[in-house]
Amino acid sequence: MHQLLLNRKIYTDFFLPHIPNAQRFVWLVTADLKDLHVETDSGFEPFLAVLAGLVERGVSVRLIHAKEPGPRFREDFDEYEALINNELFERVLCPRVHTKAIVIDARLAFVGSANLTGAGMGAKNEHRRNFEAGFVFDEPQHVRELMDWIDNLYLGEHCHQCQRREYCPDPIIDNIDER
User: Fold this and answer.
1) For residue 62, what are the CA distances in angstroms to 3, 24, 55, 83, 103?
2) Which of 37, 113, 144, 177 is deepest in the core (most CB within 10 A)?
3) Per-residue DSSP letters for 27-91?
4) Is the pTM of this model over 0.90?
5) Does the domain formed by 2-167 have CATH 3.30.870.10?
6) Which long-range contacts (CB under 8 A, 24 or more apart) does 83-88 make?
7) CA 160, CA 157: separation in Å to the nearest integer?
8) Buried b / exposed e along 112-139 (16+ C-beta atoms within 10 A)
């Protein structure tokens, strides 16, 4: 499958039905990260509650983002013990990340323009949403390529050649041999 999703379809056709149903892992890559709220059976709740629920079920979550999240996100984060000091929740910050991608269970992926924000994912009021586009795909070779790329990013493989280190508030690799 290779499917184009536009605007709110990103939220209704990918985000809502697939992320909460992950069985093994969810990898999230975004430039911007804000206090995204999503529809659940009990109304609207912070996306962090969904992530905490996944972790509590034994699903690992990897989050890579480019800048510090908004203040409401940071306040909400502290309410979810499952995301604090839990080996199933991994987070790194890299100011060079501009990619927006999600991989679920090594079987399904999304790559597009939408950040993990209400306006980006289409979860906001229809007149306040961003105009976004992206592709969902499940071709094993393409999912694997994306996963390898995300894994290298997460492990700091690019840190050794990065020429923006002085702008990095939370280096993935703390000590780089200066050669």
Assistant:
1) 24, 11, 10, 11, 10
2) 37
3) EEEES-B---EEEETTEEEEHHHHHHHHHHTT-EEEEEESSPPPHHHHHHHTT-GGGSS-TTEEE
4) yes
5) yes
6) 83/48, 83/51, 83/52, 83/55, 86/55, 88/55, 88/58, 88/59, 88/60, 88/61
7) 7
8) bebbbbbbbbbbbeeeebeebebebbee
Amino acid symbol at 61: V
Residue linked to tokens 């890559």: 29
How does pLDDT run across 53-95, given as a tens digit for each residue?
999 999 999 999 998 898 888 889 999 999 998 999 999 999 8
Angle at Cα 16 formed by Cα 123 and Cα 99, nearest 5°? 75
3-state DSSP percent of the chain in helix, strand and coil, to 5: 30, 25, 45
Helix (H, G, I), strand (E, B) or coil at 93: strand
